[in-house]
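User: quick one, sequence for these tokens?
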């Protein structure tokens, strides 16, 4: 049996497409990218198993004629993990669509502001000397308390404690 270059090229293409889709802001593309990564991993495990053989059941074949059951078990485990994570991401997509009618991850302005800081070490920052908009979120002056009636509960219809709807 001569090795071919087709399977490694397919695996590499699936990994490349999966990583490319994972870097997008659309959660649907992230889901498809993760599924492509899962399938590429399954193909990689399958190709690392070596040549096929007889079923790994004692009494059916000799030990040297049996296929290795470990890659098969790893592929089954990878399928279950991929399914679980895909279900979780699909639930996040549904939740995002139900709340905001948008499944794309928005740009976080706090991340942009932090990334714009130059040559500042965290140890050198003194929260008391920073402008209010540059203070960390946990600093007492940067927290704005809303009245109890303005606070939003989750999307479930539960009464707000101490207030009326």
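Assistant:
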């Amino acid at each position: 049996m001569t090795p071919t270059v087709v399977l490694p090229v397919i695996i590499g293409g699936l990994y490349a497409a999966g990583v490319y889709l994972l870097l997008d802001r659309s959660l649907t593309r992230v889901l498809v990218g993760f599924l492509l990564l899962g399938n590429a991993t399954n193909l990689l495990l399958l190709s690392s198993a070596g040549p096929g053989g007889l079923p790994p059941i004692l009494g059916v074949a000799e030990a040297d004629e049996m296929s290795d059951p470990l890659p098969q078990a790893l592929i089954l485990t990878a399928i279950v993990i991929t399914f679980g994570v895909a279900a979780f991401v699909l639930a996040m997509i549904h939740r995002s669509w139900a709340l905001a009618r948008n499944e794309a991850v928005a740009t976080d302005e706090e991340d942009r502001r932090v990334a714009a800081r130059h040559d500042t070490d965290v140890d050198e920052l003194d929260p008391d000397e920073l402008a209010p908009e540059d203070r960390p979120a946990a600093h007492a002056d940067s927290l704005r308390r809303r009245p109890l009636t303005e606070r939003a509960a989750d999307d479930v219809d539960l009464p707000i404690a101490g207030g009326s709807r």
